[in-house]
Automatic annotation (TrEMBL):
Species this protein is from: Alkalihalobacillus alcalophilus ATCC 27647 = CGMCC 1.3604
Name of the protein in its database record: Cell shape-determining protein MreB
InterPro entries according to UniProt: ATPase_NBD, MreB, MreB_MamK-like
Domain of life: Bacteria
Pfam families: MreB_Mbl
Main location: cytoplasm
GO molecular function per UniProt: ATP binding
Amino acid sequence: MWSTAEIGIDLGTANLLVYTKDKGIVINEPSVVALNTETKEVLAVGTEAKNMVGKTPANIIAVRPLRDGVIADFDVTSDLLKAVMRKASKKLGLSMRKPNVVVCAPSGSTSVERRAILDAVRSCGAKNVHIIEEPVAAAIGSDLPVSEPIANVVVDIGGGTTEVAIISFGGVVSCNSVRVGGDKLDDAIIQYVRKQYNILIGERTSEQVKMEIGYTPIEHEELTMEVRGRDLVNGLPKTITLTSSEIQSALHESMVQLLEAIRATLENCPPELSGDIVDRGVMVTGGGALLNGMQEWLSDEISVPVHLAPSPLESVAIGTGRSLKFIDKLQKATV
């Protein structure tokens, strides 16, 4: 065993994943922390805290310290990271003393946001911390040959943001980041149900609806789902039935924004690399890639082959862990 462990962290808006070279993904937990508002004490993190969302008494809040792919609450993020690192070191034994860590940051993040990520990870006792751009990590985790001089197009649809990037020779050639992700889609469903039915549903319910009957703008067989929420007129609980075409129309605007970001990135592509894209196509990864019909819809709209990453939810974390092998090369390309 090496004296220093090497780990990759995907500090995502929705999920926090830890990858190690020997054991693969060791931690995959929602990025949620439950806090006691009076004592500021951390009561639970990850899955346990997510189960509390929308169900806690007044003195306990379940917060998501990462918003739109960046740290919104530094102290809570540090607490979340410390708890996750403790869990990881239990699973990995003694090799986690002073790990070398690679963390990913959105390609559009500012130097202040990157500094916050570095400080949060260092405060957990990491020896060396490197930052890698999220699309590059997603490309490595999706088995794309990022260090070669050919175009690799990655569309990473995360919880807070969607990153679209063309990567060649270890660096980002052209990229766009839009604040459209899983959270925005959940919110669109909540707003639609509120407007249409005068019923308020929670975040977890809308996420469930999105996963089960959410569709991109393609033709599909109609599905229905029963949803429970609070009637805004009389305040009583109520059950309604939603159809997949309703949810499709609720998500339509966000889908259009996502498509515009992909088109804008492809328009800025150097002509030499455009030829590669026609042959090799686009790789879609991140949790949003699992939305029903995503692959079909995109290939119709942009007329190039669209591939789904082998494990969309984990590819960024796998990429951060693997990138340690050629971090020097990558950093030369991004400096």
